[in-house]
Amino acid sequence: MTATLNSETDDIIISVRGLQTRFGRSVIHDNLDLDVRRGEIIGIVGGSGAGKSVLLRAIIGLVQPTAGEINVLGENVARLDGDNLKNFSTNWGVLFQRGALFSSLTVAQNVEVPLREHTDMPKALMDEISSYKISMSGLSPDAGDKFPRELSGGMVKRASLARALALDPEILFLDEPTAGLDPIGASEFDSLIARLHDALGLTVFMVTHDLDTLATVCDRIAVLAEKRVIVVGTMDDMLAFDHPWVKEYFHGPRARSAGFAAKKD
Ligand SMILES: Nc1ncnc2c1ncn2[C@@H]1O[C@H](COP(=O)(O)OP(=O)(O)OP(=O)(O)O)[C@@H](O)[C@H]1O
Questions:
Q1: The ABC transporter domain covers which part of the protein (predicted)?
Q2: Global confidence as pTM
Q3: Most exposed: 29, 210, 216, 248, by fewest CB within 10 Å?
Q4: Cβ < 6 Å from ligand 1: which residues?
């Protein structure tokens, strides 16, 4: 069973129950439970290969579970396929690990892809929305005309974020949003996520290794280990939780140098 250390029962926007995923003989998740509350920023953490990205992909319907249920906004995602999943996916935006921008399209054209796919709005309105989302993501207006190869790593993330926000989603999924950014870029990106979360009332599901992000941006943290979520709670809950990986991660040298574990150790 998952230890849920913060026992409020708020509005649950994502509910995962008894999830099993496997690739061939390899079991990635087994009997995994997780609830995500509306309006929170939840950080998913765990060792390399623990199954964090696969969990994200299962929740958005890109990986089919072998057992269990995944409900998003009350809909059993695993039962949606083809056009139904495509239409339902307008409820969320996704920032994939490497940005996943179309290299042959400009930033503005990338942001317009979901608008073209899901709406029949006139081109002028699309242009207006894409430039709004581009500036909302912290890029200068001229970034819209650039191609992905002309962007820095941080700009690629921002452009991908602009695309993820194109359809005004309720939920934002982020896979390692600060990976590959220098510490200043990473903390600027953290602030951007926090600002957008507040301004747009988003629920944010974020896979991350970044202790600073977990400490500064996330309302709750879920730890993935032993094929399931072993604990969910606040940073203080993590610091108090007795499990070898959790102790190693939240009290290790990086945690101490980030400063937040020191006061407890
Ligand atoms: N499409 C796939 N086919 C087969 N195995 C896969 C596939 N996708 C992921 N895996 C395997 O599932 C396991 C979990 O992968 P996942 O990417 O979720 O890990 P992670 O926790 O996100 O790790 P990291 O922090 O290193 O990114 C890994 O062993 C990976 O090799």
A1: 14-251
A2: 0.91
A3: 248
A4: 23, 28, 46, 48-54
